[in-house]
Amino acid sequence: MVTDLSACTSVARQLMAQPRTSTGGSESRIGGGARVRGRVQGEGDLVIEGHVEGDLTLRGHLTIAEGGSVSCDAIDAESVTIAGLLQGEVAASGPVQLAASARVRGNLKGSAVTIAEGARFSGRLDCDFDLPQELGGSAREARTKAPTRR
Amino acid sequence: MASTVIGAGIIIEGEIVTDEDVVVLGTVRGKVSAKEGVTIQQGATVEADVVGAGLVVAGTLTGNITAADRVDLQAGARVIGNVKAARVTIADGAQFKGNVDMDV
């Protein structure tokens, strides 16, 4: 892929920070009839339509589809979309999204967290907003201890 | 289209149990059990006992294979373990070390 080199560095940096959705063929799927017990780790995007019991460490985007469920101690991913069931803690470097069908019990941490209307969430939200150094040093943290239940 | 796909960058340490298909392009250590087909593609590494209806291996597999229907070891496959299935094919170019049991 050859692009305009002058804009390349900043774009490349942005691209590298994003989940690599374009690495063709690297998407993985745990099908609806599948149950995985154990540790899942690696690179690439993962869609869970079945059941996973165990920790997930992913350099990529994790989707827990509607009908899918995960129970674990910790999920570590670049970004996470949840439309299914989750019991466990999420730590994402990017955004975390809870769709309307999500049922989540556990703490969420991400660069941004969105909760759609209809989603059920019980746990703690932890979002860090980094301010520039000259505006107040390190990170200002907006922490919401919210046992939100809808 | 397979129901469960373990992509090239993914490592699973544990057990996969499914009543559908499994395709492995990455790494699985533990156990794989499917009611339908299991495909271990070229470049994949599986260190696990594998149970399925039909098994196609083109990657590296260390472990025992039990298939309800058939096992096909394709060219490029490297298999260490015992194979138990009524029908077994080993293609030219496949490496295989182990026992074959076709009296199922």
What this model shows, in words?
The complex is a heterodimer of chains A (150) and B (104). The N and C termini of chain A lie far apart (46 Å). Chain A has one domain (26-144). The longest helix of chain A is centred in the N-terminal third of the chain and has 10 residues, at 8-17. Chain A is built from one helix and 16 strands. In chain A, the strands form two sheets. In chain A, strands 2, 4, 5, 7, 9, 11, 12, 14, 15 and 16 form a ten-stranded mixed beta sheet that branches. A six-stranded parallel beta sheet of chain A has the order 1-3-6-8-10-13, with no helix packed on it. Chain A has one helix at residues 8-17; strands spanning 28-30, 34-43, 46-48, 51-53, 56-59, 61-64, 69-77, 79-82, 85-92, 95-98, 103-105, 108-110, 112-115, 120-122, 125-130, 139-144. Chain B has one domain. Chain B contains no helices and 13 strands. In chain B, strands 1, 2, 3, 4, 5, 6, 7, 8, 9, 10, 11, 12 and 13 form a 13-stranded parallel beta sheet that branches. At the A-B interface, strand 1 and strand 2 of A face strand 1 and strand 2 of B. Strand 2 (34-43) of chain A pairs antiparallel with strand 2 (10-18) of chain B.
Can you lay out the helices and strands and say which pair or pack?
The complex is a heterodimer of chains A (150) and B (104).
Chain A: H1 8-17, E1 28-30, E2 34-43, E3 46-48, E4 51-53, E5 56-59, E6 61-64, E7 69-77, E8 79-82, E9 85-92, E10 95-98, E11 103-105, E12 108-110, E13 112-115, E14 120-122, E15 125-130, E16 139-144
Parallel strand pairs in A: 1-3, 2-4, 2-5, 3-6, 4-7, 5-7, 6-8, 7-9, 8-10, 9-11, 9-12, 10-13, 11-14, 12-15
Antiparallel strand pairs in A: 15-16
Chain B: E1 4-6, E2 10-18, E3 22-24, E4 27-34, E5 38-40, E6 45-57, E7 60-62, E8 65-73, E9 78-80, E10 83-84, E11 87-90, E12 95-97, E13 100-101
Parallel strand pairs in B: 1-3, 2-4, 3-5, 4-6, 5-6, 6-7, 6-8, 7-9, 8-10, 8-11, 9-12, 10-13
